[in-house]
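Sanity check

After download, print the first record. It should look like this:
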Amino acid sequence: MFVLTVDQRGSRRDVDRVAPLLDEFAAAELVRPFERTAGDEVQAVTDDAALALDLALDLAARGQWSVGIGVGPVETPLPPSTRAGRGPAFEAARIAVERAKNLPGAVSVQGPERSDDRRAADAEAAVMLLTLLVSRRSDAGRSAVAAMRDGLTQAEAAERLGISKQAVSQRLSVAGWQAEAAGRRLAERLLEDADR
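Expected structure tokens:
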């Protein structure tokens, strides 16, 4: 299981971003939805490594959130309220979000505290590299990647963006689109391995 604990960065000097985040991700197919746990912090539960990775990368790339991914078992049955959940993955997410506040990319992955294997550390390294790649993209690169994620061809993306197909190709190259795709596959597999 994957527990995401997400803490707003610099919340004392910023507006409350939690309510809009809860609205934005209300329809996400999570085991337990994002729920405010304390002040400027939210938490969610998923059993899908790809979804945990997508959410973590999306939030971290915004530059306004520290993201902890806790990997491991949870006490079942899970209560209806996310914040009432318990178990090693919840504890790991708490450790991870605190560590994320001081890491490049502001994302951390933590397995159960007593775990002595390196699987969570390997997953964290892959996620950190992906986060740095995604967060350093230009607006033009983000637009080109978003079009590709929507399932468009490069020609269709060029039409949507009002640029040439060659310009789309160049933007995708500079944005590291192929490296991200490969990195996502690796990070997803490492997260799944950490959950075993």
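If your output differs, re-run the checksum step. Summary of this record's structure: The longest strand covers residues 2-8.
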